[in-house]
Amino acid sequence: MTSPDSHRVIDQRIDRVVPLTTPALLHHHLPLDAALTEAVLDGRRAVARVLDRADDRLLVVVGPCSVHDPAAALEYAARLRTVADRLADDLLIVMRVYFEKPRSTVGWKGLINDPALDGSGDVNTGLRTARALLLDVLRLGLPVGCEFLDPITPQYIADTVAWGAIGARTVESQVHRQLASGLSMAIGMKNRPDGSIGTAVDAIRAAGVPHVFPGIDVSGTPAIMHTRGNADGHLVLRGGNDGPNYDAASVAAALAQLRAAGLPERVVVDASHANSGKDHRRQPLVAADVAAQLAAGQRGIVGVMLESFLLPGRQDLDPTRELEYGRSITDACLGWDDTEGVLDDLAAAVRARRATPATTSPTPTSTPA
Protein backbone atom coordinates (compact mmCIF):
# COMPACT_ATOMS: atom_id res chain seq x y z
CA MET A 1 0.00 0.00 0.00
CA THR A 2 1.41 3.40 -1.00
CA SER A 3 1.18 6.50 1.13
CA PRO A 4 -1.27 9.32 0.26
CA ASP A 5 1.66 11.47 -0.83
CA SER A 6 3.42 8.81 -2.91
CA HIS A 7 2.30 10.43 -6.15
CA ARG A 8 4.56 13.34 -5.29
CA VAL A 9 7.74 11.23 -5.32
CA ILE A 10 7.00 8.26 -7.63
CA ASP A 11 7.27 8.26 -11.43
CA GLN A 12 7.80 12.00 -11.68
CA ARG A 13 9.30 11.63 -15.16
CA ILE A 14 7.01 8.86 -16.43
CA ASP A 15 4.55 10.21 -19.01
CA ARG A 16 2.30 7.12 -19.06
CA VAL A 17 2.34 3.43 -18.17
CA VAL A 18 1.07 0.78 -20.60
CA PRO A 19 0.43 -2.80 -19.37
CA LEU A 20 2.96 -5.25 -20.82
CA THR A 21 1.76 -8.63 -22.06
CA THR A 22 3.28 -11.55 -20.16
CA PRO A 23 5.75 -13.97 -21.75
CA ALA A 24 3.38 -16.85 -21.04
CA LEU A 25 0.53 -15.17 -22.90
CA LEU A 26 2.73 -14.41 -25.90
CA HIS A 27 3.96 -18.02 -25.92
CA HIS A 28 0.33 -19.18 -25.80
CA HIS A 29 -0.62 -17.11 -28.86
CA LEU A 30 2.61 -17.88 -30.74
CA PRO A 31 3.69 -21.31 -29.46
CA LEU A 32 6.92 -23.14 -30.08
CA ASP A 33 5.50 -26.52 -31.09
CA ALA A 34 7.22 -29.88 -30.64
CA ALA A 35 8.91 -29.84 -34.04
CA LEU A 36 10.27 -26.33 -33.60
CA THR A 37 11.41 -27.14 -30.06
CA GLU A 38 13.53 -29.97 -31.45
CA ALA A 39 14.87 -27.62 -34.14
CA VAL A 40 15.99 -25.12 -31.49
CA LEU A 41 17.60 -27.84 -29.38
CA ASP A 42 19.35 -29.28 -32.44
CA GLY A 43 20.66 -25.82 -33.30
CA ARG A 44 21.98 -25.23 -29.79
CA ARG A 45 23.69 -28.62 -29.72
CA ALA A 46 25.25 -27.99 -33.13
CA VAL A 47 26.60 -24.59 -32.04
CA ALA A 48 28.05 -26.07 -28.85
CA ARG A 49 29.76 -28.85 -30.82
CA VAL A 50 31.42 -26.33 -33.13
CA LEU A 51 32.55 -24.22 -30.17
CA ASP A 52 34.00 -27.33 -28.52
CA ARG A 53 35.58 -28.40 -31.84
CA ALA A 54 33.76 -31.71 -31.71
CA ASP A 55 32.46 -30.50 -35.10
CA ASP A 56 35.11 -28.99 -37.38
CA ARG A 57 32.72 -26.79 -39.31
CA LEU A 58 32.75 -22.99 -39.00
CA LEU A 59 29.89 -21.21 -37.26
CA VAL A 60 28.66 -18.31 -39.40
CA VAL A 61 26.15 -15.87 -37.92
CA VAL A 62 24.86 -13.84 -40.85
CA GLY A 63 21.93 -11.53 -41.48
CA PRO A 64 20.70 -7.95 -41.25
CA CYS A 65 22.27 -5.55 -38.77
CA SER A 66 18.81 -5.10 -37.25
CA VAL A 67 15.48 -6.33 -38.61
CA HIS A 68 13.05 -3.55 -39.49
CA ASP A 69 10.93 -5.30 -42.16
CA PRO A 70 9.83 -8.85 -41.28
CA ALA A 71 8.80 -9.59 -44.89
CA ALA A 72 12.23 -8.72 -46.26
CA ALA A 73 13.91 -10.61 -43.42
CA LEU A 74 11.87 -13.72 -44.23
CA GLU A 75 12.78 -13.48 -47.92
CA TYR A 76 16.42 -13.24 -46.86
CA ALA A 77 15.95 -16.31 -44.63
CA ALA A 78 14.56 -18.33 -47.55
CA ARG A 79 17.63 -17.51 -49.65
CA LEU A 80 19.96 -18.24 -46.75
CA ARG A 81 18.36 -21.62 -46.12
CA THR A 82 19.26 -22.72 -49.66
CA VAL A 83 22.90 -21.73 -49.17
CA ALA A 84 22.99 -23.23 -45.67
CA ASP A 85 21.89 -26.57 -47.09
CA ARG A 86 24.43 -26.41 -49.91
CA LEU A 87 27.34 -25.60 -47.57
CA ALA A 88 26.18 -27.68 -44.61
CA ASP A 89 29.24 -29.96 -44.70
CA ASP A 90 31.55 -27.00 -44.00
CA LEU A 91 29.49 -24.20 -42.39
CA LEU A 92 26.96 -24.11 -39.59
CA ILE A 93 24.92 -21.11 -40.71
CA VAL A 94 22.84 -19.29 -38.11
CA MET A 95 20.66 -16.39 -39.21
CA ARG A 96 21.29 -13.12 -37.43
CA VAL A 97 17.82 -11.90 -36.36
CA TYR A 98 18.46 -8.84 -34.19
CA PHE A 99 15.56 -6.84 -32.76
CA GLU A 100 17.21 -4.52 -30.23
CA LYS A 101 19.56 -1.79 -31.35
CA PRO A 102 21.92 -0.37 -28.71
CA ARG A 103 22.47 3.35 -29.08
CA SER A 104 25.33 5.57 -27.95
CA THR A 105 22.95 8.53 -27.88
CA VAL A 106 19.60 8.48 -29.70
CA GLY A 107 18.02 6.77 -32.69
CA TRP A 108 15.70 3.93 -33.66
CA LYS A 109 16.03 1.26 -30.95
CA GLY A 110 14.84 -1.74 -32.90
CA LEU A 111 11.73 -3.63 -33.96
CA ILE A 112 10.70 -4.68 -30.45
CA ASN A 113 10.85 -1.14 -29.08
CA ASP A 114 9.43 0.66 -32.12
CA PRO A 115 7.84 -1.67 -34.68
CA ALA A 116 6.07 1.16 -36.52
CA LEU A 117 9.40 2.98 -37.03
CA ASP A 118 7.78 6.23 -35.92
CA GLY A 119 8.70 6.62 -32.26
CA SER A 120 5.31 5.37 -31.03
CA GLY A 121 6.97 2.67 -28.92
CA ASP A 122 4.34 -0.06 -29.21
CA VAL A 123 6.40 -2.70 -27.42
CA ASN A 124 3.56 -5.24 -27.18
CA THR A 125 3.20 -5.25 -30.96
CA GLY A 126 6.97 -5.35 -31.30
CA LEU A 127 7.24 -8.46 -29.17
CA ARG A 128 4.48 -10.20 -31.14
CA THR A 129 6.04 -9.24 -34.46
CA ALA A 130 9.49 -10.38 -33.37
CA ARG A 131 8.34 -13.73 -32.03
CA ALA A 132 6.23 -14.43 -35.12
CA LEU A 133 9.25 -13.80 -37.37
CA LEU A 134 11.49 -16.03 -35.25
CA LEU A 135 9.00 -18.88 -35.58
CA ASP A 136 8.80 -18.35 -39.35
CA VAL A 137 12.61 -18.48 -39.66
CA LEU A 138 12.69 -21.68 -37.62
CA ARG A 139 10.03 -23.22 -39.87
CA LEU A 140 12.34 -22.61 -42.81
CA GLY A 141 14.94 -24.75 -41.04
CA LEU A 142 17.45 -22.10 -39.94
CA PRO A 143 18.83 -21.71 -36.41
CA VAL A 144 18.48 -18.18 -35.03
CA GLY A 145 21.00 -15.86 -33.40
CA CYS A 146 20.34 -12.57 -31.63
CA GLU A 147 21.83 -10.05 -29.20
CA PHE A 148 20.27 -9.72 -25.76
CA LEU A 149 20.05 -6.11 -24.67
CA ASP A 150 17.02 -5.65 -22.40
CA PRO A 151 17.12 -8.09 -19.45
CA ILE A 152 13.33 -8.68 -19.59
CA THR A 153 13.06 -9.44 -23.31
CA PRO A 154 14.66 -12.94 -23.23
CA GLN A 155 11.60 -14.42 -21.48
CA TYR A 156 9.60 -13.53 -24.60
CA ILE A 157 11.90 -14.85 -27.34
CA ALA A 158 14.90 -16.78 -25.95
CA ASP A 159 13.20 -20.16 -26.32
CA THR A 160 13.61 -19.77 -30.10
CA VAL A 161 17.31 -18.81 -30.09
CA ALA A 162 20.27 -21.14 -30.79
CA TRP A 163 23.09 -18.58 -30.35
CA GLY A 164 23.18 -15.28 -28.51
CA ALA A 165 25.50 -12.34 -27.94
CA ILE A 166 26.16 -9.68 -25.36
CA GLY A 167 27.16 -6.53 -27.18
CA ALA A 168 30.24 -4.36 -26.95
CA ARG A 169 28.45 -1.64 -24.99
CA THR A 170 26.99 -4.00 -22.39
CA VAL A 171 29.75 -6.60 -21.99
CA GLU A 172 30.99 -4.81 -18.87
CA SER A 173 27.50 -4.75 -17.31
CA GLN A 174 26.96 -6.99 -14.29
CA VAL A 175 23.28 -7.27 -15.23
CA HIS A 176 24.16 -8.73 -18.65
CA ARG A 177 26.80 -11.07 -17.29
CA GLN A 178 24.24 -12.42 -14.81
CA LEU A 179 21.68 -12.72 -17.60
CA ALA A 180 24.15 -14.65 -19.77
CA SER A 181 24.85 -17.05 -16.91
CA GLY A 182 21.25 -18.23 -17.03
CA LEU A 183 20.55 -18.21 -20.77
CA SER A 184 20.04 -21.61 -22.36
CA MET A 185 22.22 -21.13 -25.43
CA ALA A 186 25.88 -20.34 -26.17
CA ILE A 187 26.68 -16.67 -25.65
CA GLY A 188 29.36 -14.66 -27.45
CA MET A 189 30.91 -11.77 -25.53
CA LYS A 190 32.05 -8.91 -27.76
CA ASN A 191 35.14 -6.91 -26.94
CA ARG A 192 34.44 -3.39 -25.74
CA PRO A 193 34.21 -0.51 -28.31
CA ASP A 194 37.62 0.75 -27.18
CA GLY A 195 39.06 -2.63 -28.19
CA SER A 196 39.54 -4.06 -24.69
CA ILE A 197 39.71 -7.86 -24.85
CA GLY A 198 40.18 -8.28 -21.12
CA THR A 199 36.70 -6.96 -20.38
CA ALA A 200 35.11 -9.60 -22.59
CA VAL A 201 37.32 -12.32 -21.12
CA ASP A 202 36.16 -11.22 -17.66
CA ALA A 203 32.56 -11.39 -18.89
CA ILE A 204 33.02 -14.98 -20.09
CA ARG A 205 34.42 -15.94 -16.68
CA ALA A 206 31.63 -14.14 -14.83
CA ALA A 207 28.87 -15.69 -16.94
CA GLY A 208 30.36 -19.14 -16.45
CA VAL A 209 29.54 -19.29 -12.74
CA PRO A 210 26.22 -19.28 -10.80
CA HIS A 211 24.50 -16.00 -9.95
CA VAL A 212 21.44 -14.86 -8.03
CA PHE A 213 19.56 -11.78 -9.24
CA PRO A 214 16.04 -10.36 -9.55
CA GLY A 215 14.12 -10.77 -12.79
CA ILE A 216 10.77 -11.99 -14.09
CA ASP A 217 9.61 -15.53 -14.68
CA VAL A 218 7.65 -16.71 -17.72
CA SER A 219 4.37 -15.64 -16.13
CA GLY A 220 5.72 -12.10 -15.80
CA THR A 221 5.96 -12.35 -12.03
CA PRO A 222 8.93 -10.73 -10.26
CA ALA A 223 11.27 -13.54 -9.23
CA ILE A 224 14.72 -14.30 -7.88
CA MET A 225 16.76 -16.10 -10.53
CA HIS A 226 19.32 -18.68 -9.38
CA THR A 227 21.50 -19.57 -12.37
CA ARG A 228 23.91 -22.47 -12.97
CA GLY A 229 26.41 -20.58 -15.11
CA ASN A 230 26.95 -20.78 -18.86
CA ALA A 231 29.83 -23.01 -19.97
CA ASP A 232 29.38 -22.05 -23.62
CA GLY A 233 30.62 -18.46 -23.37
CA HIS A 234 33.13 -17.37 -25.99
CA LEU A 235 34.92 -14.28 -27.28
CA VAL A 236 33.78 -12.20 -30.25
CA LEU A 237 36.42 -9.96 -31.82
CA ARG A 238 34.82 -6.87 -33.42
CA GLY A 239 37.72 -4.44 -33.48
CA GLY A 240 37.99 -1.23 -31.48
CA ASN A 241 38.71 2.47 -31.56
CA ASP A 242 42.39 1.79 -32.15
CA GLY A 243 41.79 -0.49 -35.13
CA PRO A 244 40.77 -4.00 -36.19
CA ASN A 245 41.59 -7.21 -34.35
CA TYR A 246 40.80 -9.91 -36.89
CA ASP A 247 44.35 -10.40 -38.21
CA ALA A 248 46.38 -13.46 -37.24
CA ALA A 249 48.51 -11.68 -34.65
CA SER A 250 45.44 -10.22 -32.93
CA VAL A 251 43.70 -13.59 -32.96
CA ALA A 252 46.78 -15.24 -31.44
CA ALA A 253 46.93 -12.57 -28.72
CA ALA A 254 43.24 -13.03 -27.92
CA LEU A 255 43.64 -16.81 -27.70
CA ALA A 256 46.61 -16.28 -25.36
CA GLN A 257 44.45 -14.12 -23.08
CA LEU A 258 41.79 -16.80 -22.97
CA ARG A 259 44.42 -19.43 -22.19
CA ALA A 260 45.87 -17.31 -19.40
CA ALA A 261 42.38 -16.97 -17.90
CA GLY A 262 41.86 -20.74 -17.98
CA LEU A 263 39.12 -20.45 -20.61
CA PRO A 264 38.60 -22.44 -23.83
CA GLU A 265 40.66 -20.97 -26.67
CA ARG A 266 37.96 -20.08 -29.17
CA VAL A 267 37.03 -16.85 -30.91
CA VAL A 268 34.39 -15.67 -33.33
CA VAL A 269 35.48 -12.89 -35.68
CA ASP A 270 32.96 -10.16 -36.46
CA ALA A 271 33.75 -8.96 -39.98
CA SER A 272 31.70 -5.80 -39.49
CA HIS A 273 31.83 -2.92 -36.98
CA ALA A 274 35.34 -1.67 -36.20
CA ASN A 275 36.94 -4.63 -38.00
CA SER A 276 35.66 -3.25 -41.29
CA GLY A 277 35.84 0.40 -40.27
CA LYS A 278 32.03 0.34 -40.51
CA ASP A 279 32.38 0.04 -44.29
CA HIS A 280 30.29 -2.89 -45.51
CA ARG A 281 32.42 -3.15 -48.63
CA ARG A 282 35.40 -4.18 -46.47
CA GLN A 283 33.66 -7.14 -44.87
CA PRO A 284 34.76 -9.49 -47.69
CA LEU A 285 38.38 -8.37 -47.11
CA VAL A 286 38.10 -9.22 -43.44
CA ALA A 287 36.50 -12.56 -44.28
CA ALA A 288 39.26 -13.28 -46.81
CA ASP A 289 41.93 -12.71 -44.16
CA VAL A 290 40.07 -15.01 -41.76
CA ALA A 291 39.71 -17.60 -44.52
CA ALA A 292 43.48 -17.50 -45.08
CA GLN A 293 44.03 -18.12 -41.37
CA LEU A 294 41.63 -21.06 -41.45
CA ALA A 295 43.29 -22.56 -44.50
CA ALA A 296 46.68 -22.20 -42.76
CA GLY A 297 45.41 -24.38 -39.90
CA GLN A 298 44.08 -21.88 -37.33
CA ARG A 299 41.55 -23.81 -35.25
CA GLY A 300 41.07 -21.18 -32.57
CA ILE A 301 38.71 -19.32 -34.90
CA VAL A 302 35.42 -21.15 -34.52
CA GLY A 303 33.10 -18.64 -36.14
CA VAL A 304 32.53 -15.53 -38.23
CA MET A 305 29.83 -12.86 -38.09
CA LEU A 306 28.60 -10.95 -41.15
CA GLU A 307 26.09 -8.12 -41.50
CA SER A 308 24.17 -8.85 -44.67
CA PHE A 309 20.82 -8.09 -46.28
CA LEU A 310 19.11 -8.33 -49.66
CA LEU A 311 20.59 -5.04 -50.91
CA PRO A 312 23.98 -3.53 -50.04
CA GLY A 313 24.55 -0.45 -47.92
CA ARG A 314 22.02 1.37 -45.79
CA GLN A 315 19.31 4.02 -45.96
CA ASP A 316 18.05 6.69 -43.60
CA LEU A 317 14.77 6.30 -41.79
CA ASP A 318 12.88 9.22 -43.34
CA PRO A 319 9.16 9.65 -42.54
CA THR A 320 8.66 11.62 -45.76
CA ARG A 321 9.94 8.87 -48.04
CA GLU A 322 9.08 5.22 -48.59
CA LEU A 323 11.82 2.85 -47.52
CA GLU A 324 13.63 0.78 -50.13
CA TYR A 325 12.79 -2.89 -49.69
CA GLY A 326 15.64 -5.08 -48.45
CA ARG A 327 18.12 -2.35 -47.47
CA SER A 328 19.23 -1.79 -43.86
CA ILE A 329 18.15 1.28 -41.88
CA THR A 330 20.91 0.79 -39.29
CA ASP A 331 24.47 -0.32 -40.13
CA ALA A 332 25.37 -0.79 -43.78
CA CYS A 333 25.23 -4.44 -44.86
CA LEU A 334 26.66 -6.63 -47.57
CA GLY A 335 24.25 -7.32 -50.41
CA TRP A 336 23.09 -10.84 -51.14
CA ASP A 337 25.41 -11.60 -54.07
CA ASP A 338 28.53 -10.61 -52.14
CA THR A 339 27.30 -12.53 -49.12
CA GLU A 340 26.96 -15.76 -51.05
CA GLY A 341 30.48 -15.35 -52.43
CA VAL A 342 31.93 -14.80 -48.94
CA LEU A 343 30.14 -17.90 -47.62
CA ASP A 344 31.54 -19.99 -50.48
CA ASP A 345 35.06 -18.74 -49.71
CA LEU A 346 34.71 -19.52 -46.01
CA ALA A 347 33.49 -23.03 -46.81
CA ALA A 348 36.50 -23.59 -49.08
CA ALA A 349 38.79 -22.44 -46.27
CA VAL A 350 37.23 -24.94 -43.86
CA ARG A 351 37.89 -27.72 -46.35
CA ALA A 352 41.50 -26.59 -46.65
CA ARG A 353 41.87 -26.46 -42.87
CA ARG A 354 40.86 -30.11 -42.58
CA ALA A 355 43.96 -31.04 -44.56
CA THR A 356 46.31 -28.66 -42.71
CA PRO A 357 48.12 -29.17 -39.38
CA ALA A 358 46.89 -26.91 -36.60
CA THR A 359 48.55 -23.52 -36.31
CA THR A 360 50.38 -23.05 -33.03
CA SER A 361 51.98 -19.62 -33.47
CA PRO A 362 49.90 -17.62 -35.95
CA THR A 363 51.57 -14.88 -37.93
CA PRO A 364 49.76 -12.16 -39.86
CA THR A 365 48.58 -13.24 -43.30
CA SER A 366 47.78 -9.77 -44.57
CA THR A 367 47.52 -6.14 -43.56
CA PRO A 368 44.34 -5.41 -41.56
CA ALA A 369 41.64 -3.54 -43.41
**Major sheet characteristics:** 8 strands, parallel, barrel
Strand tally: 10
Q: Globular, elongated, flat, extended or rod-shaped: what is the shape?
A: globular
Write out the CATH superfamily name of the domain at 20-162 and 246-254 and 269-354: Aldolase class I
> How much of the sequence is in beta strands?
5-15%
Percent helix: 25-40%
- CATH topology of the domain at 20-162 and 246-254 and 269-354, what is it called? TIM Barrel
Q: Alpha-carbon distance between the termini?
A: 60 Å
Strand neighbour order, sheet with most strands: 1-2-3-4-5-8-9-10
Count of DSSP H/I helices: 10
Please tell me the CATH architecture of the domain at 20-162 and 246-254 and 269-354 by its name.
Answer: Alpha-Beta Barrel
| Overall average pLDDT | 94
CATH top level assignment of the domain at 20-162 and 246-254 and 269-354 = Alpha Beta
Helix/strand-derived class? alpha/beta
Query: Radius of gyration in whole Å, from Cα?
Result: 20 Å
Order of helices and strands: HHEHEHEHEHEHEEEHEHEH
Task: Note poorly predicted spans.
Answer: 361-369
Catalytic activity: D-erythrose 4-phosphate + phosphoenolpyruvate + H2O = 7-phospho-2-dehydro-3-deoxy-D-arabino-heptonate + phosphate
Protein name: Phospho-2-dehydro-3-deoxyheptonate aldolase
Enzyme class: transferase
Pfam families: DAHP_synth_1
